Amino acid sequence: MDKVTLGKTGITVNKNGFGALPIQRVSVDEAVKILRKAYDGGITFFDTARFYTDSEVKLGEAFSHMRDKVYIASKTGAEKAEDFWKDLHTTLNNLKTDYLDLYQCHNIPFVPRPGDESGIYDAMLEAKEKGMIRHIGFTNHRLKVAREVIDSGLFETLQFPFSYLASDKDLDLVERCRKADMGFICMKALAGGLITNSKAAYAFLAQFENVLPIWGIQRESELDEFLSYVDNPPVMTDEIRDFIEKDKKELSGDFCRGCGYCMPCPEGIDIATAARMSLLLRRAPQAMNLTPAAREKMKLIENCRHCDACKKKCPYNLDTPALLAKNYEDYKHFL
Q: Of 29, 54, 237, 271, which is the most buried if we count CB atoms within 10 A?
């Protein structure tokens, strides 16, 4: 069983974390079933957020009776202390607990510091002193902000997208965290669904001793796949290495990671799906993306105002309107 320690937090868990964003899409009963099965299978780190609708509530239903057996991390997108406290109290109530193992700033565009106008960091310290949170972390999609977080020395963990499609700059972040004794929580380990070989994804991440991947799990079949790696963790082989190199060439260039920070669109375009449709059609079963309902959603691209709101909000600096147009033209060839 592979283990990872999240830096100076001392939190040591199996190298399979549970990303609880997708369980907002299933019923409470189904979510509780999946979450408890994950725990029974050896997963003890669960990551959620206020932003994930009822995800926190479902975690509370699953684990409130055994709170000391699991590590629960949540997030707040608050940019003012007043909103921070509101989010924290709501989260604790949802989770039916009086503390969080890790509380993270959720993709905010600046790094809170002691005594600044936002009051966020001071509020986090106060919450920590009161025992409401045990450790302080930060999540982001922007390299510049992520570097500032590490250099500040104020946070115990960084959550950032990381997979075998990572650039040298992403790899540098992991190494910076290791040197700073910061835990690195890896989101988007499957690149928003574009990576379809979980064995290769796991083997790549297993090479980094300070990295904890949190797999976004919605179905029991997906969970079973990762649970099989608890006792039999994949390791890097020449075969997997060759597969990764081939995959990286196929996915080179600009592509949408599906993070959703460009949403909502004023015309109702499902940008996170539409902007990567070409790749999804080639790497996943086509039927679900070619239904009449799916066609109507893609057709909304024709209504794009070119207001560039999505482009301005993209943490990867993609030309989103151009990407949508390109994917729509390609989509038509599949009809």
A: 271
- H or E stretch covering 299: helix 292-299
pLDDT per residue as tens digits for the range 278-314 = 888 887 767 888 999 999 999 999 999 999 999 998 8
Distance (Å) of CA 43 to CA 9, 14, 58, 285, 291:
18, 6, 16, 29, 36
Query: From its phi and psi, is residue 53 left (phi > 0), alpha (psi between -120 and 50) or beta?
Result: left
Tokens for 107, please give them. Answer: 């993709």
- The angle, 0 to 180 degrees and rounded to 10, between the axes of the packed helices 143-152 and 168-179 is 10
Name the β-bridge partners of 103. Answer: 74, 136
Query: Measured at the alpha carbon of residue 225, what is the angle toward residues 223 and 229, in degrees to the nearest 5?
Result: 110
Which tokens go with 246?
A: 């081939």
Cβ-based neighbours of 305, under 8 Å, separated by 6 or more: 266, 267
- Pinpoint the residues of the chain covered by CATH 3.20.20.100: 3-246
Question: pLDDT digit string (tens) for 207-257?
Answer: 999 999 999 999 999 999 999 999 999 999 999 999 999 998 887 667 787
> Phi and psi dihedrals of 13, rounded to 5?
-140, 170
Helix (H, G, I), strand (E, B) or coil at 300: helix
- My answer on whether omega of the bond before 264 falls inside 30° of 0, hence cis, is yes
The architecture that CATH gives domain 3-246 is Alpha-Beta Barrel (3.20)
Residues sharing a CB contact under 8 Å with residue 126, sequence separation 6 or more, in sequence order: none
Question: H or E segment at 18?
Answer: strand 17-19
Do 279 and 190 contact (CB within 8 A), yes or no?
A: no
Residue with the two structure tokens 């990872």 = 4
The pTM of this model reads 0.87
Query: Torsion-angle region of residue 10: left (phi > 0), alpha (psi -120 to 50) or beta?
Result: left
120, two tokens: 């966020």
Decide the pairing of beta strands 45-47 and 17-19.
parallel
